[in-house]
Amino acid sequence: MEALKLGESFLTIGQLVDVARRGLPVAISEKAVRRIQEGRRVLEQWVSQGRKVYGVTTGFGALADVAIPREQARTLQRNVLLSHAAGVGEPFPEEVVRAAMLLRVQDATLGRSGLSPELVQRIVDFLNLGVVPLVPSKGSVGASGDLAPLAHMFLPLLGEGEAICRGRRLSGAELLRELGMDPLEPGPGEGLALINGTQVMTAVGALAVWDARDLARTADVACAMSLEVLLGTRTEFDPRIHIARPHPGQAVSARNMLRITAGSEIISSHKDCSRIQDAYTLRCSPQVHGACRDAISYALKVLETEMNSSTNNPLIFPESGEYLLGGNFHGQPVAMAMDFLAMAASELANISERRIERLVNPQLSGLPAFLVQDGGLNSGFMIAQYTAASLVSENKVLAHPASVDSIPTSANREDHVSMGTIAARKAREVVRNAEQVLAIELMCAAQALDLFTDLKAGAGTQAAYRAVRQRIPHLTEDRFLAPEISAAVELVRGRIVLRRVQEAVGSLG
Hints:
Fumarase C, Chain B, domain 1; 57% helix; Fumarase C, Chain A, domain 2; 2 domains
């Protein structure tokens, strides 16, 4: 695979996903190397001149007033990595760590961190060799950067900490011996520059928002399937309705569902029925799905801006020979976007679960109770709906915003923090829960189609049905459902249903 060259152009979330999940190799452009060299040169010049530079020749946080002698500058940087590696909890998934490493390199390519080219290249080497440091998922308050997780991430550069390499869990010292590398000793300012940024919350958030974008498309597919078997109408997707209220996501969702159900014999068969209007879970689906889409689009824009930003402190400006102390490490933009993303994914799950209830409830669907024959002897999809309900209720708790909270740290020097990493972790979990709810809806809708009619569904609905049935057979009597729910989740998470539908009706918005 051709390497992704950093430092030449805007880094997209799609490229981040390629590196984090697909192992796309990374390289640094020549222009970026020159920017990194120039930033490092200026910083080393300041040190040689004996200038007082925060975190380079002084302590950190509440200890910023403590001057550090030049001969102890390297010890200071090693100490900051060791002391700040105080995280707890389960390690982040490998894809999150790889994404965060990529973002730390991307930040360095802007030339404002003061990191040396040698250290940045070592991070690139780790990425390309498949080295994944063990990074505890809890311990960041999201201001002064993701201090604890980033410290853990870069301890292996020093021969400290732990990492996964070639499927084995190794100490930092064992890792370097196996790779034939010497430990790096961070130079003046480098320890702080490695940890003073928003790369972890941004990595978690970028992967979550990427998944949420396709989740919204899958929600349109699941809703269209449910609408057909619940004898809904396509009227609610009429473009004139959405021109009258021109929220962009609303129009896209309506257009998607109009295309998915196109050519449906089921819908045509009841166009003259006596029902006046559909339930809100069907009739208002473009409005609900669309609002979620717009929230996801906002979060994506924030995340891509953050991915291409300098979030260190101090920020070095080699062109003027200055450094500036500021607060770009504060995670508030990401925190608020992640809370918004969690709410959007929660709503996609909420409305999906209510459609599941309509499918399994014979009083609402006109179908056999819980979508199975011989009800009583068989419980069918009764407990699958319970599972969806439990996930939706869990999401309600997780959707409580983290960004409205703050707690002072560093002897009250850092007296307002973002909780951005907590917000990102919650959003990721909500998205994963929502994927499972939508998977259950797809299973129920496919079952309902089997029970419902011999009339043909819309082209997109048929494609989704076939994708489900390739992995999950029709339920004739009770059987072990958990593995089949897992298989349905993989159809959602792996974009398999979405891909099949798009092959049938064209790309969905």
